Structure formats: C-alpha cells, structure tokens
C-alpha cells in the first residue's frame, strides 16, 4: 500500500477537461516529481490532492483513507501540506506571524510552536534575521523559504511544492533544491514536487511523471527520464 495513491482522476473547469484519467503513486520517503509544460495540469493535480479543487471522478487515497472529498483544512491536518505556486505568503504580516499561521491546524502549546519556529530558523537563518520584517519586503528567494517554512510548521508527512524555483536566480534555485533534499533525507518528509525546471526536478527526484495536456505520457525512475529521448527533446532542451 502506497502512502498516497491517485486513481483515474478526472478534473474539469466547466467544459475544459483539465485532468484526464491520471493515476500516480507516492511511496513513503520518496521524492516524486511531476513535470510538464505550462498548462499541462500540474497545479490542478496538486490542488485536487489538497482539496482546493474537486475531482469529477477518481480517487485520492492517503494511508488507506479516501481523501477525495475531504475539505482542504482536514487534508492539511491529516498530514499533506502544500507550498502553492507563487508562494502566497501574507505580505502584510511579519515573517514570524507567517510562520505561526502555518501551525494553525495544530493544537499545541505556544511553547512547542515557538520551538518549532526556532528549528525553522536553524534551517533558514535568513528568516530569523528578518523575523520582524513584513513578508512582502523579502526577496523572492526569502519568500520561497518562508513559504516552505510555513508549510513545515504543520509538520506534514507529505510536502507538496508547486514550482518552487519559479522566478528565482540560479544560485537560489540550487539552494531551494538543497533544502528540499535535506527535508526529505533528514526530516523524513515525503516530497511531491512540481516543476517546469525539469532538469533540476529530475536530478533530485527518485521517480517522476510527465504530464502533457492533462495526461500522464511517461513515468519512471528520474535518472531514466533524464536520459529519455522524448523527455530530453521536449523538456530538457537537448
Ligand atoms: N480556474 C481555471 N478556469 C479555467 N481553466 C483553468 C483554470 N485553471 C487552470 N485552467 C486550465 O487548466 C489547464 C491546466 O492548468 P494548470 O493546472 O494550471 O497547469 P500547469 O500548472 O501545468 O501550468 C490549462 O489548460 C488551464 O488553462
Ligand atoms: Mg502551475
């Protein structure tokens, strides 16, 4: 039994059939990547997993439990957190308050939440230096770190990231990917990563799925896909 299993998922926006019979699995401890061009349906897939968008048909199973019709805040509580596309931090709140809000789903003492924040500051020293700063004044890379930190505050078993490298300079992209790898290796967090930057995504993933106009056209070991002719031509500029 996989940690997360999507079976024959179909999602529509009105008449637009955005997700067509997608099936995929994520095993405990894996980094799984979903790659594909703009408009392929990556964000729609992730938002359906998180309960933000409703599927027309199909199932999403997490730990033996059908979460397809669960509300978003319950899915978060169950252990699946998402760092959304474009980060969506609260720009008029401080870094500290953004992090605190990330744990709203957890019934824990203030002390323990503060300890959690201290751990996030260890991972992201730049956030500690800027903890009283309004989040909207952070650089793009710092905002991405904050978005990841906020998601970790809910102590997810699965962290879903929607294009974390978008709009970041190459050095920061590397840094963000190192953070994702570290969360997976040292924090026991299973990762589902969506990227247009296929090369980076495939370089850190265990397995990957290639999405094209709402359909999965290829899946396999990330290393095999890096060497796959079709993937190289379409997504790696080779
Ligand atoms: N709110 C929406 N209303 C109508 N169509 C949408 C909406 N959001 C996305 N779509 C369409 O669904 C398809 C998949 O979009 P999306 O999941 O955002 O792709 P990706 O994240 O891979 O770029 C696209 O054709 C897009 O135009
Ligand atoms: Mg998207």
From TrEMBL:
GO terms under biological process: L-amino acid transport
Q: What's the family? A: Belongs to the ABC transporter superfamily.
Q: Which UniProt keywords apply?
A: Amino-acid transport, ATP-binding, Nucleotide-binding, Transport
Keyword flag Nucleotide-binding:
yes
Q: Please name the Gene3D superfamilies in this protein's record.
A: P-loop containing nucleotide triphosphate hydrolases
InterPro entries xrefs:
AAA+_ATPase (IPR003593), ABC_branched_ATPase_LivF/BraG (IPR030660), ABC_transporter-like_ATP-bd (IPR003439), ABC_transporter-like_CS (IPR017871), BCAA_Transport_ATP-bd_LivF (IPR052156), P-loop_NTPase (IPR027417)
Q: Which GO terms describe its molecular function?
A: ATP binding; ATP hydrolysis activity; branched-chain amino acid transmembrane transporter activity
Write down the SMART domains for this protein, in alphabetical order: AAA
Q: Where is the ABC transporter domain?
A: 4-238
UniProt protein name: ABC transporter, ATP-binding protein
